[in-house]
Amino acid sequence: MDKSIQHAYNATDRSYLAFLKRDIHQLAVQTGFSGQRLAEIDLIVAELSSNLIKHAGGGEILVRPLGDTTVYGLELLSIDNGPGMSNPTRMMEDGMSTTNTLGHGLGSIRRLSDFFDLYTLPNWGTVALSRIYLPGIHPPQGKPARIGTLLLPKTGEKVCGDGYAVKYAANQLHIFLADGLGHGPEAEAATQLAIRTFTASASTSPVTILREIHQAVLKTRGLVGTVGILDMQAGQWKFCGIGNITTRLCNLNLQDIPKTFMSYNGILGGNLPRTMNEQVAPYLRGQTLIMASDGLKSRWDTNRFVAVRSHDPAVLAAALHKDFSRKTDDTSVLIVQTT
Predict the structure, then answer these.
(1) Residues in a beta bridge with 303
(2) Residue 266 contacts by C-beta under 8 Å, 6 or more apart in sequence?
(3) Interatomic CA distance for residues 197 and 203, integer angstroms
(4) Residue 268 CB partners (closer than 8 Å, separation 6+)
(5) Paired sense of beta strands 125-133 and 145-152, if any
(6) What share of the chain is helix, strand, coil (3-state, %, to 5)?
(7) Which of 334, 187, 123, 130 is nearest to 247 (CA)?
(8) How far, CA to CA in Å, does 142 sit from each of 2, 70, 145, 328?
(9) Residue 216 in contact with residue 193, Cβ under 8 Å?
(10) What is the pLDDT along the chain (339 residues), one digit of tens a residue?
(11) Which residues neighbour 39 within 8 Å (Cβ) at sequence distance 6 or greater?
(12) Nearest residue to 150 (alpha-carbon basis) of 325, 12, 19
């Protein structure tokens, strides 16, 4: 069970909901849930899916286990292009509804979730985020940044050729986003080997790490990728990328013009420029860094997402997917919000 890949379900027809609920129930069992908590997850899924049909004319649910080496919970994202809500806080009060139903749905989801977030705009749609943790297990705390990710394989594929990695060192955050050439198992193999090399590297230079990855993946299909290092003690970001990974850094307001970091032409495991230099930017609290593969359309932007900075970064990743995914390739988004 790959703990980073989201499983996507289109909730566009009531006849599909039984399959959706059964599949997510089985994933929750595999994650380790049982008894009352499993029944509560079933209720959350039922409410999310029925809300998509009743209020938004359908939508999408993304689900995945939470955790890297240790699984600690389940994450559910509900995404739609419906009418949105003008007063989401009031709509989460029991008894409120925009239809003739009782309107307990959003309130129930919030109560049953260990973490719940809702982002909605009139005439845009809604993203609802629910995280449920295994009993007695709590998510990692005390990190210097909030991380949000999205990782979806191309429709019809069981594995994803995109991938990401995040690791913490002394006063540093190291991040890596990769896109294996093409899609399917060979693309996944190249990306996973690159991720293992990145994770094992002791270097604090993005250029050096990329060269290490290049050597490690010479016998694979190859990939493109970008390494970023946030050094809080030095007060700076360092980046270097090969190929078409888009990297943008926003300060405080996502509606401001972001700084875009250009990658070098080439392929990791294929051909690298002889000379590569790191790009540097100042580190500030309240920054939002967004990395995305070409699974998103090239002209993606964040201007329409008013006040999304106050929400969990996974919500922003879902919003970018909702509005800009090509749906014809693997898709990955890695977001870092400095705190």
Answers:
(1) none
(2) 242, 243, 272, 273
(3) 11
(4) 178, 194, 210, 213, 214, 217, 222, 223, 224, 225, 242, 243
(5) unpaired
(6) 30, 35, 40
(7) 334
(8) 25, 17, 9, 37
(9) yes
(10) 555 899 999 998 888 899 999 999 999 999 999 999 999 999 999 999 999 999 899 999 999 999 877 899 999 999 999 999 876 666 666 544 544 443 458 999 999 999 999 999 999 999 999 999 999 987 877 678 999 999 999 999 999 999 999 999 889 999 999 999 999 999 999 999 999 999 999 999 999 999 999 999 999 999 999 999 999 999 999 999 999 999 999 987 777 789 999 999 999 999 999 999 999 999 999 999 999 999 999 999 999 999 999 999 999 999 999 999 999 999 999 999 998
(11) none
(12) 325
Residues near 71 by beta carbon (within 8 Å), at least 6 away in sequence: 3, 31, 32, 65, 134
| Residue keyed to tokens 């940044």 | 145
Residue type, 198: F
Tell me how far apart the alpha carbons of residues 309 and 303 are, in angstroms, rounded to a whole number: 11
| Residue 240 and residue 206 in contact, taking contact as beta carbons nearer than 8 Å | yes
By the 8 A CB rule, do 227 and 211 touch? no
> For residue 60, what is the enclosing H or E element?
strand 59-67
Strand locations in 137-218 (E): 145-152, 162-169, 172-180
Contacting residues for 141 by C-beta, under 8 A, at least 6 apart:
none
Hey, CA dihedral for 43, 156, 147, 302, is it positive or negative?
negative
Handedness of CA 338, 127, 89, 123 (dihedral sign): positive
- What are the beta bridge partners of residue 239? 228, 279
Q: Within 10 Å of residue 36's Cβ, how many Cβ atoms?
A: 9
What would the DSSP string read from start to end of 64-114?
EEEESSSEEEEEEEEEE-S---S-HHHHTSTT--SSSS---HHHHHHHH-S
